[in-house]
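Today's session is about reading a structure prediction critically. Students often jump straight to the picture, but the first step is always the sequence itself: look for stretches that repeat, for charged clusters, for runs of hydrophobic residues. Only then move on to the predicted structure, which in these notes is written as discrete structure tokens rather than atom positions. Here is the chain we will use throughout the hour.
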Amino acid sequence: MRVLFLDIDGVLNNSSTEERFEGYIGIDPALVAIFNKLIQETNARVVLSSTWRFDKNWRETMARHKIKCVFLGATPHLYVPGENRVERGEEIKKWLEDNSQYQITNYAILDDDSDMLEGQPLFKTSWKEGLTPEIAEKVKQHLC
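Below is the predicted structure for this chain, in token form.
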């Protein structure tokens, strides 16, 4: 099974996104179209690694924005107040360790941040552009 860890801000929205969701920057339909095509071409399952996962209704939110994928869940929140910041890569590592039943053959990370662990396959987007067809193609080549 192929798995894609998905951040939202800076991936499915960007600095020019006009859509709004609950008073914040929403999800950009043009970027969702690129993402949906990537999922269709790779048949990857998705794990939400974005802070959007803290919304108890995140699955409904993703469906409402027409994100067409199978979500396996979300990464755990490992930060403990008063302690050092936890890198997103640590949360991804923990999710992979806790979900070995999925027999993952390959995975990729789509994120506009760089707080991953060494060796993790990060495909970095930018807040200015979000997910581009070029980055999606690189993810596809990596996963397939």
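Discussion point for the tutorial: Residues 29-42 form the longest helix (14 residues).
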